[in-house]
From TrEMBL:
The lineage of its organism: Bacteria, Bacillati, Actinomycetota, Actinomycetes, Micrococcales. The chain crosses the membrane at residues 36-58, 70-89, 101-119, 125-146. Keywords: Membrane, Transmembrane, Transmembrane helix. It comes from Microbacterium oryzae. This is Uncharacterized protein.
Amino acid sequence: MSLNEVLLRVDRLAAGRQRDVRVPAIADPTLRRDWLVVRVLLGVAMMLGVSAIGIAFWLTMQGMAEPLPVWMRSVVVLGLTGGLGYFSFRAEQGWYWAYARMRMFAFIFPCVTLVFAAVPGLYPAWMTLEQLAFAALMLTVGVLLTTPRMRAAYRRDA
């Protein structure tokens, strides 16, 4: 089984009804640069997630056990960021569904993150700061994905 066949099987789970909608190849260098910036931002978000797990582990080893919400949030956000990385990979290849999912989640994730960050005492101060940084990264990704040139490139009827 080729890599493309494996990816198409994964796409069936993530894409829904729009799994066969594809836009023409992206030749615009500005769009390619925008996708590079998105990938870098997602990489930074991934590193932020890994560092959050590292900090929680280190603090636990120092005898300051972190509460369960810290561990859950760290692992979940790391997984969600990985999913966005997959969506960006597929969207760059022209899959409309991946672009649409990225646009949606790039705004939903920071909203949820900011709501949880606002709950007093739920997370330690370092985790709240990490959440604010994550939200800023995701909002930046969302803004890049909604620029007029990006929306024009990913029209469903293209």
